[in-house]
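Structural biology now treats backbone shape like a language. To illustrate, our science desk offers a sequence and the tokens encoding its fold:
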Amino acid sequence: MSTTPDGGSKLIEFPCPQCGKRLKVSKEAIGRQARCPSCSSVQTVPAQSSLPPATAETSIESYGSTPAQPTVPPVVDPAPPLTPAPTPSLQAPTPPAGAQPQGLGSYHASGTKTKTKEIFDRINGEIGKIYVGQQELVLGTLVALFSSGHVLIESVPGLGKTLFVRTLGQVLGCPFGRIQFTADLMPSDITGAPIFDMKSQEFRFRPGPVFTQLLLADEINRSPAKTHAALLEIMQEYRVTIDGTSHKIERPFLVLATQNPIESEGTYNLPEAQLDRFMFKLIADYPAEMDELSILKLHSRQVDINKRLEKELETVTSPAEILAITEENSNVRVDDRLIDYINKLVRRTREWPQFHMGASPRAGIALMQGARTLAACSGRDYAVPDDVVELALPALRHRVVLTAEAEVEGHRVDDLLREMIRSVEVPRL
């Protein structure tokens, strides 16, 4: 045990009442609560040591302290501190106020094995056989899929967006469709239209390419607003109305729309009503060096990609199971303080000086649904502030509009959103 110059001990040593682990903290923590790094149980630090000195002990960290109390100084100990295990309650460690949002690329799923997490891990494993890297894109798309949302992807050409959707469709067991948006694309080219059947002498509805389950809307910003409007009803209500007759879209239904951030010639800005229909806007950037090296090794051989998709990938789930998991994820608990945190984030976008227009209530709904799904995918039945912070940028970046002054000054939406998110106090659950 550590001692002071006069021979007195600076540490308190006692056993964990749950697992019996020998715990060791500073005397300044007497009377305060501490969390065991082995079993994550919380107990009050006693006034005196109840164990004799030992050579191997475990340091624990203070838990549940308030801003008015001083934090416990770190204990210098020969043994390395153990990583705390995840707690099976809402008393999980939360990010401090002013946490830096890093985006979905920094998220690491952890937790106990649940049905949702097992399927999520299997899907990730299968996708990795063909599609390398782009963790934000993969994770954000799966969260949107299991939340009944849609995704807008902004990236330069050549990053494998079509390959990703085809891979995802093979793994999920869902049909895949693609629409190449151009300036002369008509709404009927998307939804389908009635055609006259010469044999029956009557009109018969011919379904368009939108009647699928995974739809890639490639370069969606190359079509005018009239064509974009054809997707509004489909994305929100999962149906197509032609000549007063509604035709249902089979679920699950996921739209992955792409747009090129470089070229502006011959493009149309998506209307705000269309942007708000997307749950997330994900940024697909150039791959890291090692990822690009793996891509060269995987895809430089002259092998038909269709054969590879059929032979190398295994279908690990089904549309019925996806719908069941989506419904099950609605039972993930979201504390009232976390709901209030989400509400404050969304409302703060409408007050931020560099934003001409803030996010709508649909952004809050997207954050709520996404946080539930992200928690389930990490093996938890409760959401924590970390889930919200991870999803804040994808859920808000396409729903806010910069002021003219902010655009002239060269501000980026993501930088302003990070600054705004840091200004909202994170709740302690």
